[in-house]
């Protein structure tokens, strides 16, 4: 039996209920940076609920309803607590409606400011791991996946991109309402809205349609830098299994970003990640790989973040090799030397909440996969990855599940290898053949 372990972000998200659908409608004006919205949240009680605790940061809840009737509520310290007249019995579906308004601000966190962020001319949302409550009330834990409808109204000169497929675009009095439907279950941190002065660029019509929204001035460089993305989708489909969603989109904002970021079915890059020389192609590969590892298969608990980042990092090395660059083994040797020179005080499968995004999680996570590949061979390794993405598609995952599946694909015992790479401090030697 697995011992009970405290979640990394205890107090964030709540396991007393599950959300099945978020229906979000927000109006945003970039010139005043004001947002007003309405969230209709359909959920089911897992336990008897004396209150429904929603994560909701700094916006003001103006009206709250439970199953259509006005509900008492208390909004304090990042929680909107909705109080039913009588407790909601376990197993009962219920609907919370919240109307809200204000100036959205990112959520302050151990990893910087996260969530809804104002751009020079527009806005973006990048919420990993705790930023979603900056723009809508939610049950903000990655294991609670739900479907979404996201309607965004903005001045008509802006392009709006959100998760899922665009189902309608209505113009009225100088504003346009963009409605996106997301039928694939998605974690709150991967929900996004992108608002900016963009032009559309089509990278591929199929089999995985790939579109982009890019500032006009960057289109020529972008077309070169992302020109090999369709080939990348093909290569990853062969190695990892079918691309998990109906399409893939990229947004390039007209501001600089520290790092590109993944959302469900799309990724966002800064203007600084487009240089006309494919200078950031490894990150194009990294964010694309997150669609399989992170977005389709999502960590149930942040402790297992290497299942996102180690895999996305390894995808960078695989793409390098696939595209005629350095082989993965050269990247692995370099990464091993880098990690070897750093303190050996981090466990990949339990890095600690402050070090979730430590570069060693990425590098050693990728090295773990490389070591595993060299131990079991290519056929077993990529067979494992494809079974992994097929079995847990649209679901949540844990390290133990990956280890159990790896054992089944190996023709030799892996306990020692996986324990040393994932659960112990010292950096193991890189297997060579
Ligand atoms: Zn990543």
Describe this structure in a few short sentences.
By secondary structure, the chain is of the alpha+beta class.
List keywords for this structure.
32% strand, binds zinc ion, Immunoglobulin-like, alpha+beta, 433 residues, 3 domains, 9 helices, 5-stranded mixed β-sheet, Zincin-like, 8-stranded mixed β-sheet, single chain, Neutral Protease, domain 2, globular
How would you characterize the overall build of this protein?
The protein is built from 9 helices and 23 strands. By secondary structure, it is of the alpha+beta class. The protein has 3 domains: 17-195, Immunoglobulin-like (Sandwich), CATH 2.60.40; 199-291, Zincin-like, CATH 3.30.2010.30; 299-423, Neutral Protease, domain 2 (Orthogonal Bundle). The strands form 6 sheets. The protein has an 8-stranded mixed β-sheet, with no helix packed on it. Bound molecules: zinc ion.
Shape: globular
CATH superfamily of the largest domain: tricorn interacting facor f3 domain
The CATH topology of the largest domain, please?
Immunoglobulin-like
Average pLDDT, all residues:
96
Structural class from helices and strands?
A: alpha+beta
Tally the beta strands.
23
Distance between the termini: 36 Å
Estimate percent helicity: 25-40%
Q: What is the gyration radius calculated from CA atoms?
A: 22 Å
Bound compounds, each kind once, are:
zinc ion
Strand order of the largest sheet: 5-4-8-2-1-12-15-14
SSE inventory with pairings:
Layout lengths: L16 E13 L4 E12 L6 E4 L4 E7 L2 E2 L1 E5 L2 E5 L9 E10 L4 E3 L2 E8 L2 E5 L19 E10 L3 E4 L2 E8 L2 E12 L6 E4 L2 E6 L5 E5 L4 H7 L3 H12 L7 E5 L8 E3 L2 E4 L11 H9 L8 E2 L6 H17 L5 H13 L18 H18 L1 H14 L4 E2 L1 H11 L5 H9 L10
Parallel strand pairs: 1-12, 18-19, 19-21, 22-23
Antiparallel strand pairs: 1-2, 2-8, 3-7, 4-5, 4-8, 6-7, 9-10, 10-11, 12-15, 13-16, 14-15, 17-18, 20-21
Bound molecules: zinc ion.
């Amino acid at each position: 039996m697995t011992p009970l372990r405290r979640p990394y972000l205890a107090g964030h998200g709540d396991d007393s209920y599950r959300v099945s659908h978020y229906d979000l409608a927000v109006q945003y004006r970039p010139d005043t940076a004001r947002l007003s919205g309405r969230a209709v949240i359909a959920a089911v009680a897992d336990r008897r609920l004396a209150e429904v605790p929603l994560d909701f940061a700094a916006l003001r809840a103006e009206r709250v309803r439970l199953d259509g009737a006005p509900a008492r509520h208390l909004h304090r310290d990042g929680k909107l607590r909705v109080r039913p007249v009588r407790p909601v019995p376990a197993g009962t579906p219920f609907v919370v409606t919240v109307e809200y308004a204000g100036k959205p601000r990112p959520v302050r966190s151990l990893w910087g400011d996260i969530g809804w962020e104002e751009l020079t001319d527009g806005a973006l949302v990048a919420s990993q791991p705790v930023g979603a409550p900056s723009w809508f009330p939610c049950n903000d834990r990655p294991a609670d996946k739900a479907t979404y409808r996201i309607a965004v109204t903005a001045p008509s000169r802006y392009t709006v991109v959100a998760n899922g497929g665009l189902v309608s675009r209505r113009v009225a009095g100088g504003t346009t309402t963009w409605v996106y439907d997301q039928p694939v279950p998605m974690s709150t941190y991967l929900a996004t809205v992108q608002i900016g002065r963009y032009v559309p660029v089509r990278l591929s019509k199929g089999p995985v349609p790939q579109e982009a929204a890019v500032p006009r001035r960057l289109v020529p460089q972008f077309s070169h830098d992302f020109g090999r993305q369709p080939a990348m989708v093909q290569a990853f489909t062969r190695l990892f299994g079918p691309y998990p969603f109906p399409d893939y989109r990229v947004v390039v904002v007209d501001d600089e970003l520290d790092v590109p970021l993944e959302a469900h079915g799309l990724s966002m890059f800064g203007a600084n990640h487009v240089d006309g020389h494919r200078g950031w192609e490894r990150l194009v590969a990294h964010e694309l790989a997150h669609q399989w590892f992170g977005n389709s298969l999502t960590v149930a608990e942040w402790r297992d973040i290497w299942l996102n980042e180690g895999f996305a990092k390894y995808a960078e090395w695989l793409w390098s090799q696939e595209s005629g660059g350095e082989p993965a083994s050269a990247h692995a040797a370099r990464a091993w030397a880098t990690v070897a020179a750093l303190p050996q005080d981090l466990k990949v499968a339990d890095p600690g909440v402050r070090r979730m995004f430590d570069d060693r999680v990425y590098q050693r996570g990728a090295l773990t996969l490389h070591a595993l590949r060299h131990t079991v061979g290519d056929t077993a390794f990529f067979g494992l990855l494809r079974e992994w993405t097929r079995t847990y598609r649209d679901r949540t995952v844990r390290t133990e599940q990956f280890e159990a599946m790896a054992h089944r694909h190996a023709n030799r015992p892996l306990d020692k290898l996986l324990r040393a790479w994932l659960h112990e401090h010292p950096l193991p030697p890189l297997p060579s053949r």
